């Protein structure tokens, strides 16, 4: 994410502050803490990628649901490792 300055995978309160300032919507420290608390599902005091999508798109947004679905599908598929096994013509459908 562009606003994840330390590349930790999460947006902390200072990164959120800079993001809001860049968007022209400067917030107080208390407002930023409240924003994080509203979407922080991990209770770490930071915003991860799914939390960020929820914050920006809303919980009931169909685009959000599609993005999260494809993100989960990407995680589930484990790529085969090593060289692919040899196949003969008899193995083809």
From TrEMBL:
ATP-binding found in the keyword field: no
GO molecular function annotation: actin filament binding; calcium ion binding
Classification via InterPro entries: AIF-1_EF_pair (IPR049025), AIF1/AIF1L (IPR042433), EF-hand-dom_pair (IPR011992), EF_Hand_1_Ca_BS (IPR018247), EF_hand_dom (IPR002048)
Pfam families: AIF-1
Superkingdom of source: Eukaryota
Domain EF-hand: 1-26, 27-62
Membrane topology: Peripheral membrane protein
Protein name per its UniProtKB record: EF-hand domain-containing protein
UniProt source species: Amphimedon queenslandica
Gene: 100640514
